Amino acid sequence: MSEHTHFDVLVIGAGPTGLACAIAAQRNGLRVVLVDKGCLTNSLFNYPAHMTFFTTPELLEIGNMPFSSPNQKPSRSEALEYYRKVAEHYRLDIRQYENVDHVTGSDGDFTVQTTDKFGRKLIHRTRKLIVSTGYYDLPNYLSIPGEDLPKVKHYYHEPHPYFDQDVLVIGGKNSAAIAALDLWRHGARVTLVHRGAALHPHIKYWIKPDIENRIKNGEVVAHFNTTVSEITEDSVTLLTPGGPKVLPNHFVFALTGYHPDFDFIESLGVRLDEANARCPVCNPATLESNVPGIYLAGVVVAGERTNEIFIENGRFHGDLIANDLSEKLQPLPAST
After folding, report:
1. Domain CATH number, residue 228
2. pTM (2 decimals)?
3. Neighbours of 314 (CB within 10 A)
4. For 133-152, how does the pLDDT look when each residue is reduced to its tens digit (9 = 90+)?
5. Residue at 336 is within a domain
6. Does residue 291 lie in a domain region?
7. Is the distance from CB of 172 to CB of 199 less than 8 angstroms?
8. Is 6 helix (H, G, I), strand (E, B) or coil?
9. Is it the case that residue 4 has pLDDT exceeding 80?
10. Neighbour count for residue 143 (Cβ, 10 Å)
11. Domain final residue pick, 233, 254, 275
12. pLDDT tens per residue across span 17-75
């Protein structure tokens, strides 16, 4: 087991909000390290390959660095390049592919044990901790027979492998609509299933009429007020308003949303407000949790309401936290 240098601040999660937190703390003279179980901005990397953001480039900016793009709505690849450049510019210390196993200690002296991609155990010591783990790594499972089959996927990346295949897309929001359209345009036979009576009204305004017209024309078959009861190697069983329906099937995309890692948050001693969408208890002015020295940033602050915090507003959490840290911490001497 290897022990690393002491840090003033350790940030768990190297997404845009985690980067913003690290930059703000570093600007205050604090020694900062980021730890992520995946790559830099891992959630963005796992978005669909040709995804376009709903927002404009300037609303994705962090660290006062301009996000230059010729497009009104930037692409996934542009965003990845931008955040790489930000990390390089600020010379952030990012430990990629390290999974946090557990955290011990208390305010002023936390010990964070991680495991790297080779299974080696590492120890990091830090005075303060910022949790910015997002939610994209934990899908909302259906808990039905067959969900563990290899043909079932909870993330959509690109359409080519599904040409001339019977594909079921489960969900009624942006990710499901985008996947259904992309699959259909690249030669898949697409069926869309949603438990609601209609597609979600907040689907991106340029996506919604497109998917509705494909459904109207029968190019994408849709079943509303419908759930999936079973998945087998060659079929899926739907529970429709007219009764059970069995469809031939090669692949299933269960795009039913994601949730924060509540178990990890609670393992830190942070309380969840069960009456308020399981939002972690924290001071809204500083984002320090009920555990002194542990701060929360990004979408984890909103608990189960994952549609309330995005890059556009989560990126400001870094300044809130850094302002509080600057009042409570003197930077460690360079020799420690």
Report:
1. 3.50.50.60
2. 0.92
3. 25
4. 999 889 999 999 999 999 99
5. no
6. yes
7. yes
8. strand
9. no
10. 6
11. 254
12. 999 999 999 999 999 999 999 999 999 999 999 888 989 999 999 999 999 999 899 99
Neighbours of 319 (CB within 10 A): 15
CA distance 324 to 334: 22
Tell whether 142 is covered by a domain: no
Q: By the 8 A CB rule, do 253 and 170 touch?
A: yes
Establish how many alpha carbons lie within 13 A of residue 50's alpha carbon, considering only the half-sphere containing its beta carbon: 8
Tell whether 47 and 106 lie within a shared domain. yes
Residues 6+ away with beta carbon under 8 Å from 185: 159
pLDDT digits (tens, 9 = 90+) for 88-108: 999 999 999 999 999 999 999
Give the C-alpha separation, 35 to 18, whole Å. Answer: 9
pLDDT band at 335 (very low <50, low <70, confident <90, very high): low
Total domains, the chain: 2
Whether 9 and 129 share a structural domain = yes
Q: What is the pLDDT of residue 2?
A: 59
| Same-domain check for residues 238 and 276 | no
Distance CA 261, CA 299 (A): 11
Question: Containing domain of residue 161, as a range?
Answer: 152-254
Instruction: Quote the CA–CA distance of 117 and 97 in Å, as a whole number.
Output: 6
> CA 297 to CA 288: how far, in whole Å?
9
Cβ-based burial of 150 (10 A; exposed 0-12, middle 13-18, buried ≥19):
exposed
- Of 195, 224, 254, which closes a domain? 254
Question: For residues 93 and 34, is the Cβ–Cβ distance under 8 A?
Answer: yes
Residues 32 and 177 occupy one common structural domain: no
100 and 59 inside one domain: yes
